[in-house]
Design a protein that fits this description.
The chain has 619 residues and is of the alpha+beta class. Bound molecules: iron/sulfur cluster (SF4).
Length: 619
């Protein structure tokens, strides 16, 4: 199909595959939705609001899985590699977007599609082969049960092209583990169980080859914007740390600042931090660097443990591995963390949720709720690296205690009882990432109200952590959290990587983000117009949740964060008591123009944003 789409950066076409009917169709991208919601997360949220009835089973055939790119994605703009997998999540029960980097998204665009909608359920395992215009549904019976890397290898051999890009699930996705991931070559759509949704459709993999390109209205403008942004990246010290050490660049300084979550968040200082810092990682395991498409930040590390019981080859470890399997479980052996990372990828499970489940089990063991009779003889003492690895493997296999933990900590605690919910560190069913909010009120209200619960990509602590704003002041934190929400969601819709935070944010939608979007699309948005789009996107997702029955009461923090002050270190005493959180929520809802009682967008707000169609569902 010739690209006649009105705006630059888009292909103007969506691919739809119905696995129940084995049907493949192509349809125009909606021009009005592109303008109002941009792409990526914004477009997917609008589409799924339209197409998914409320209250469906996330793992039933009615759910739809959308892979969506954005207009900036696939151009030369730096860090424009990202794309998203979106669906109703089996963890949260609401709209979820899982962002991933690498090459799959740009390749989908080069094949001619802004996005792919997968619906229905195949009666047998299949995989999709997208070769530009030609799309096939192929048998995957020989791939079912294979680990993601083996399945990718077989598909590449079958197709006879080492250069194709492949999204694939592991055993966990096949069996519906609610925090199963999708692995896209070496990158992951890691959070919210998108792998389980894919598995519920009997869809093992999607392979794509695209030979086209992305058109922009003025190449020189995009080129000049790219050069300017690359210059900013090259001279920004925060970004340089990412290039040198990857996301673990700040482990040592976070610990020194008293904000390195440790021992299932009992404290935020790790006495044995030296074993797991970015510097230690670089010295002991990192063998090289890998970048996503068109990214000059180059944050991904490639690590090898050549022999011994932790023998492994991984991309990473990222900060979340170091936090989750390291300080949170009090393991200080970087090689063991590499092995944990590898096990998670091989089974196709989210390493944040997995490590937090292991830590929860360790705390239950510490408190006597679990004994060796419950753990299958594993000694779950803090810091026991081999026990951490054994339990991680059991979660992948859903075996013994691992079968319970594979349900997620919220469900596991409901089954176990005995006060174990006090040790779950999650919100909306999603386990917490490695970024504290006890000393940071804007981050606290951002996490509590975030549509994805425990996600550090709906809110960032950076402005409060870095001293750009006074972290101790409560006033104005609802506004700050809202404006951080806005730059994040606009970045996830344009699609550029959040790790360029200092370029695209970090306090509000930055002029660099607006310029990247304008240069690629040919739009002429000013800050207020760009912000308004982001606000519309955020409200759209809130409407989805409200229609599912979510209300203000679901905007919560883990009990530990509200009742247990940080016991030591520079942040000693930090806590967000329930009354403080409720006050912050009032501030946030007031700034957003939402109803204080329900936390839902009001009729006036939805009318102002052009979301009148949702009024009947949420007001
Ligand atoms: S900063 Fe890192 S994760 Fe983000 S696009 Fe670049 S290489 Fe990929």
């Amino acid at each position: 199909m010739a690209n006649t789409f009105k705006y630059g950066g888009y292909k103007g076409q969506m691919l739809r595959v119905n696995l129940t009917k084995q049907g493949i169709s192509k349809e125009p991208l909606r021009e009005d939705w592109a303008r109002d919601f941009v792409g990526g997360v914004g477009y997917s949220a609008r589409l799924l609001y339209e197409e998914l009835p409320a209250k469906i089973d996330p793992l039933g055939p009615e759910n739809k899985l959308v892979f969506m790119t954005g207009p900036v994605n696939g151009t030369m703009i730096p860090a424009a590699s990202r794309s998203c997998a979106c669906a109703k999540s089996p963890l949260t029960g609401s709209f979820f977007h899982s962002i991933f980097g690498g090459y799959f998204g740009p390749e989908l665009k080069f094949a001619g599609y802004d996005g792919l909608i997968v619906e229905g359920k195949s009666d047998k395992p299949v995989y999709l082969w997208i070769d530009d215009d030609r799309v096939e549904i192929r048998s995957a019976e020989h791939l079912w049960g294979k680990n993601p890397f083996k399945a990718q290898e077989i598909i590449r051999k079958e197709i006879g092209d080492e250069g194709i890009h492949v999204a694939v699930i592991g055993e966990a996705g096949e069996h519906g583990t609610p925090y199963a991931i999708i692995l896209l070559d070496i990158r992951a759509a890691g959070r919210g169980g998108m792998g389980a949704v894919m598995g519920s459709k009997n869809l093992k993999a999607i392979a794509v080859r695209g030979t086209g390109s992305v058109s922009v209205p003025n190449v020189l403008r995009v080129y000049n914007t790219t050069m300017r942004l690359n210059e900013l990246i090259a001279t920004n010290p925060a970004v340089k740390g990412l290039s040198d050490y990857g996301t673990p660049r700040n482990v040592a300084s976070m610990n020194a600042a008293g904000i390195l979550p440790t021992r299932n968040w009992q404290t935020e200082v790790f006495a044995k931090v030296d074993g797991i810092t970015g510097e230690t990682m670089k010295e002991k395991v990192v063998k090289g660097h890998r970048a996503c498409f068109a990214c000059s930040i180059n944050c991904t590390k490639y690590s090898v443990v050549p022999s011994g019981r932790y023998k492994s080859i991984i991309n990473g470890p990222d900060y979340e591995t170091i936090y989750g399997f390291g300080s949170i479980c009090e393991v200080d052996d970087i090689q063991a963390l590499c092995k944990a990372d590898e096990i998670c990828d091989e089974y196709g499970i989210d390493l944040i949720s997995t490590s937090m489940a292991v830590a929860w089990a360790m705390e239950c063991y510490e408190k006597g709720i679990f004994t060796k009779a419950d753990t299958g003889g594993i000694d779950l003492t803090w810091g026991n690296a081999d026990a951490m690895l054994e339990l991680t493997e059991k979660i992948g296999k859903r075996e013994g205690l691992g079968a319970l933990l594979a349900k997620g900590t919220r469900e596991a605690a409901k089954i176990v009882g005995k006060g174990s919910e006090r040790f779950t560190i999650e919100n909306k069913g999603v386990e917490w990432p490695g970024h504290t909010c006890r000393p940071f009120p804007a981050a606290a209200v951002g996490y509590a109200t975030g549509p994805r619960g425990g996600s550090h990509h709906d809110i960032r602590p950076t402005p409060e952590k870095s001293g750009m704003v006074d972290r101790k002041v409560l006033e104005g934190k609802g506004a700050l959290a809202s404006e951080i929400n806005h730059w994040l969601i606009l970045a996830d819709s344009a699609l550029v990587c959040h790790l360029g935070e200092s370029i695209w944010g970090p306090m509000k939608v930055n002029e660099n983000l607006v310029e990247a979007l304008n240069a690629v699309t040919g739009w002429n948005l000013d800050y207020q117009q760009a912000r308004k789009i982001a606000e519309r996107q955020w409200n759209m997702i809130r409407c989805f949740a409200a229609r599912e029955g979510f209300t203000r009461k679901d905007d919560r923090l883990p009990i530990r964060f509200m009742e247990e002050p940080v016991p030591e270190g520079p942040m000693k005493g930090s806590v967000i008591p329930k009354e403080t959180l409720e006050r912050l929520k009032d501030d946030y809802f007031t700034y957003r123009g939402w109803d204080l009682k329900t936390g839902n967008p009001t009729k006036e707000k939805l009318t102002e944003l052009g979301l009148e169609f949702a009024i009947k569902d949420v007001c």
